[in-house]
# Entry
Amino acid sequence: MQNKSVKKAVFPVAGLGTRFLPATKASPKEMLPIIDKPIIQYAVEEAIAAGIEELIFVTSSNKRAIEDHFDSNYELESLLQKKGDTAKLKLVQHTIPENIVCTFVRQKNPLGLGHAVLCAEHLIGDEPFAVILADDLLDTSKTNCLKTMTDLYKKHQYSIIATQIIEPSESSSYGIIKPQRGQSDNNFIKISGIVEKPQPEHAPSNMAVIGRYIFTPKIFNYLRKTKAGAGQEIQLTDAIAQLLKGESVYSFLCPSKRYDCGSKIGYLEATLAFGLKHTDLKEQFKKLLKQYSLEK
Ligand code: UTP
# Structure
C-alpha cells in the first residue's frame, strides 16, 4: 500500500483568548495583526507551503471575522478595482489560493483543545491530518517545521508532535514529553509518555510540545473517550498519552524561532522581530527603537 500524505489541517480557533481581554471580547485573538497580517494568515501560509490542501477551522460564535478574512469582500474589491489600486487588490484577493479548500466547523462550548480537534472528526475521515495552533507563530524564513513534519510522516506514517527545549521552570505552561530511553539523537525521537503542564519536579524532560502536530486518524478513538483533565478542559495531551500506548508517536524538535502570541509579551516580541525584518519598515523601525532606548 502507498504511504499516505498529509493534506488536511485543523486550526482550532475557538478558544476564549482571555489573556488578551478586552481586545478579544468581540474579535478573535487570531485576527490580531503582526504588522499588517493577522496571526491566522501566517499559520495558513505556513500550512499551504507545507503541502496542505484543505484547511478546517474550528471556530466559535465570535470568530466570524476569521471566516470573512478568508472569503472575498466584494465591496472592497470593486472599490479598489475602480481606483486601479492593483497592489492592494492583490493583498485582499489572495488570502487563500483558489485550489485550497476552506471549511468551518463550530465548537459550541470551549471545552478544551482536545474537544475542538474532535469537532473536525467528520471532515477528516480516515486521513492523517495536521493540527496547527496559530498563536504559536513560527518564523518560517529559514525552515518550515510543518513541511519537515509532513515529509517525515510520508516516510514513517507515525503521529508526530513538534517540541522545543524549554527552561525546566517553564514546564507548568506546556505539555511535556517523555522520550523513550536509549535514543541518542534529539531531533526525531520516539515518545514513551506525555503530561499536561507538570510542575518542574514532575516533568519527565525539558521537551515541551508546541502548536504543530500530525496525527493518524486513530487519535479520534481516544479523543472521544477523553474526559476533562487539567484546567477542567478536554486535553489533546491526554488523548496523545493514550494514542502512544497503541501506536508509535514521535517528537520532532522544531528548530524555528517561536513566538507565543497567546501571551502579551510573546505577541510584542513577534511584532518587534517581524518589524525589524519588514522590507518597507525596518529602517524606520530601527531608528525608532534606537530613539526609545536612548530616551531610557
Ligand atoms: P489556549 O490555551 O491558548 O486558550 O488554547 P485560549 O482560550 O485561546 O486563550 P486564553 O488562555 O484564554 O488566553 C490553545 C489553542 O486551542 C484553541 C485556542 O483557540 C488556541 O488555538 N482552543 C482552546 C479551542 O479551539 N477550543 C477550546 O475550547 C480551547
Notes: The chain has two domains: 8-262, 263-296. The pocket of uridine 5'-triphosphate is lined by residues 12-19, 29, 58, 107, 110-113, 115-116, 133, 135, 262 (CB under 6 Å).
